[in-house]
Amino acid sequence: MKSNLTSIILKSGKDQSLKRFHPWVFSGAIKKIKGSIAEGDVVAVYSNKDEFLGLGHYQVGSIAVRVFSFEQVDPDFDFWKSKLAKAFAMREQLGLAANAGTNVYRLVNAEGDGMPGLIIDYYNGVAVMQMHSIGMYLIREKLAEALKEIMGTALTAVYDKSAKTLPFKADIKPVNGYVLANSPVNQVLEYGLKFNVDWENGQKTGFFIDQRENRRLVEHYAKGRDVLNMFCYTGGFSFFAMRGGANLVHSVDSSARAIDLANENVALNFPGDKRHQTFAVDAFEYMQGIKNKYDLIILDPPAFAKHRGTLPRALQGYKKLNARAFEQIRPGGVVFTFSCSQVVSKEKFREAVFSGAAISGRTVKVLNQLAQPADHPVNIYHPEGEYLKGLVLYVE
Fold it and tell me: Would the pTM of this model clear 0.85, i.e. be above it?
């Protein structure tokens, strides 16, 4: 392997994280590069003492190598098929791969499944791939073929949605489209509720699968409550609240397209149900005048911090948002609050939420601490993969 691949030699002392199986090599850790190199190439990483450390995809940027194997292997078709098969087998063990009531789940979760730079979400027969590295993008057809061999008739189409997720510095012009077959199907089931999913034009891969178990928990808390679902997107939390027996549910999002999708999904599950209303307005604007109107508020905003430079501003945003909810909610109300920003740690998010509670002057108690579900596994050697944080809070 060493003679056939470009070698990345690390500086003295910069090999310890890889020896602990952390899958990233930062550009500042590189001493020299032996051989020609292009973005997306498979490279072999060595210590300054010529010890083999791993194989990965090279990328221009702060994270220079994303390691996919700590063993000297041939990353051929069978290698990737084996990786995908292991990921699928785990979802089978979780009871997701053949579940009559839920046919949407995450099939590959990047570093969590040993495939950095690759996300695959499964939507009722359609696998939607989203690449975050050029290396993965270059083998997308190989991955699609391997998936078809593994999943058989359970897979009807593979859609690549990487146009906006690949590194902008890369000298390629990716176009979203089907890699394998095509599919008119865009309806999925989650715990028996129906959702229309727009993976071609919607956010992420089309649906926020990572909130599945948290939506079900909202159903548990919703009975007899007046519910506000902020940043509602397609309305997932709203419909679980309705099925849970909420008195009324208001869904708010600044995107008119998101509100249209939410209304479509209401019609699928609760046709003619007058308990649900939608509002296409700014979240902070809507929350100014809702004193004592709701006793269950869900705050699931988009990522306030996408890189470390925006972290201070993001924490202020979480503090302000949660303070507003605490100030407005009825006594005895419940707040579900989340952060999906990877750079916001659990500790920092909790501090921001607690600061918001202090500003409101209300007594607030933690009922549940929430995270991403099991089909979004976190590699124990890569704690950065634990991006979704949530709290369920009781406000006296």
Answer: yes
